[in-house]
Amino acid sequence: MLKTILIRCLQIIPSLFVVVTLTFILTRMIPGDPARAVLGPQASVEDVQKMRETMGLNQPLVSQYKDYMIQIAKGDFGVSYSYNQPVLGLIAKRIPNTLLLALPSVFIALIAGLLIGVTSAVRQGTLFDYLFMVLALVGVSMPIFWLGLMLVLVFSVHLGWLPVLGMGSISAGIGDVIRHMVLPCFCLATIPTATFSRITRSSILESIHGDSIRALRARGIRESVVIWKYALKSALPPVITVLGLQLAGCFAGAILTETIFAWPGMGTLIVGAIDNRDYVLIQGAVLVIALAFVLINMLVDVVYMIINPNVSYEGGF
Question: Could you give the maximum distance between any two Cα atoms of the chain, in Å?
């Protein structure tokens, strides 16, 4: 296992290299001038030119790319144009807020998805099964931005039950923060819940028709114990694999969710950086998200090997 983990760590390097390169190229394709965005539309041409020189944007793209790669290799993510602060410091302030949304959302989605998936598999062919599988299909297909706007319209505008903007204040009590979390967490958990329920149902159906489960039933073990202890355990590896993808995907989903609910996390940071043509901040934020994505997936692969020892340590993932 240690050798496999080492190999995966080495594989991270070319993956991040591709991410950094693509992000560098794509940011330069964003319409607008970062220097003009910093100084404002009333700035003179001379001032804009001086700002471009200060930012290093007057150099050829090859030189800019080489300088940026050297910075990244040294662990220096640069200074944000719009905030005039180190990029790592800005990201460090926003990541906990995004995790405060992502982790509870994935946990809720996992529990709900397991319950729905197992129950649908046990009641295969019933009205309950058809109803929840249709709802799961709708959940997977539903755009997050549309769902978020509908939640705001119903629960905030019409009913006035829940706040819609910001993350509340801990000084007003933990209840205030939780009330602000309800709508964005529900929005962010919708697609993972639908995905977990579909994967769990398929895995449980495959598991309960296996010889080992038939043998347990023949021994007179209670059906609930057979399903929730033995069948679910053998059906977990695919769910664990999907768990890593969904957790990493929550960072991407958070961009839309945080923007709709004005949640001060990585999503709103990236959107603001794009609006301000803040190349350095965009590149740093995307790199951190990509690093989180590959690390989460590596951790999931290790957990998968622990759960299923039949997976070869040498064969990769």
Answer: 86
